[in-house]
Write a structure and sequence with these properties.
By secondary structure, this protein is α+β, with helices and mostly antiparallel strands. It is 41% helix and 22% strand.
Length: 251
């Protein structure tokens, strides 16, 4: 991990931070530091004191993982440049409930929770933005729970690929492996591999080493459930312009 200097005069490529007014951003800007995070970097373990807010930037993605009694991890939600993880609305000591890891490496802006809490006491509008984001994150968790209960593995596979695609800068290339997809779906790798073979045979995707190339976006969307669209619509209602838009790139 390579730390960069603090960035008081420019905003990292995180839509939640860019949603803040100039006055509100100025309250936290001196305390923001941007670093390069590697895929697989552990941000929190269950029980850890949540002392830092992490804002994924550009193509970076963080993942919430819940460990089951059989030792398998199941990913519940992904958080990219539309949001943040850790200490969003908390005050004082807060233990982490899940493991939170960096799924796709890249820049992440970090802010001490104490500095965010101090800024919130000075600005009602800043408090409002983070409270609204917490509502959006909760909606994403609700939708993910419902999706896992009622939708097929094929629908959920297509949904997760689209969700990751919207948050990356690689156009039609998503750095997801079969193993990572299986973890997102909470199923064995063999199930994911069968679905991907079907998608490949239909000319929807190709697989490369460590990534997926989307050949036909519309066909992929047709195979996905509407859960991702429901989350996007809620974001648009609550925090307009924060969820990544089509063709939005950091460069």
């Amino acid at each position: 991990m390579i730390a960069n200097e603090n960035l008081p005069n420019e905003r990292p490529f995180n839509n939640l931070l860019r949603r803040l007014s100039a006055k509100d951003f100025a309250l936290i800007a001196p305390h923001l530091a941007q670093e390069e995070a590697d895929a697989g970097e552990l941000l929190y373990n269950p029980g850890d004191d949540v002392g830092t807010v992490h804002f994924p930037c550009g193509p970076s993605l963080a993942s919430f993982l819940v460990t089951n009694e059989d030792g398998r991890d199941v990913e519940t939600i992904l958080v990219g440049r539309e949001g943040a993880v850790g200490g969003i609305v908390s005050q004082g000591y807060l233990p982490a409930y899940t493991r939170i890891m960096v799924k796709f490496g890249g820049p992440i802006a970090r802010l001490p929770v104490a500095k965010l809490e101090a800024a919130k006491t000075k600005s009602a509008t800043l408090r409002n933005v983070f409270a609204r984001y917490a509502d959006c994150m909760l909606a994403q968790i609700f939708q993910s729970t419902a999706c896992n209960a009622i939708h097929s593995i094929e629908q959920r596979t297509a949904k997760w690929i689209i969700s990751a695609m919207e948050r990356t800068d690689g156009d039609n290339i998503v750095p997801l492996t079969h193993e990572q997809l299986a973890t997102l779906l909470g199923v064995g790798r063999s199930y994911t591999s069968r679905v991907m073979q079907t998608f490949k045979a239909e000319g929807v995707v190709e697989t490369r080493r460590g990534s997926i190339l989307i050949l036909n976006r519309e066909a992929l969307r047709m195979r996905a459930c509407m859960c991702n669209e429901s989350v996007k619509n809620h974001f648009e209602e609550v925090l307009r312009g924060v969820y990544p838009a089509e063709g939005e790139h950091s460069r």
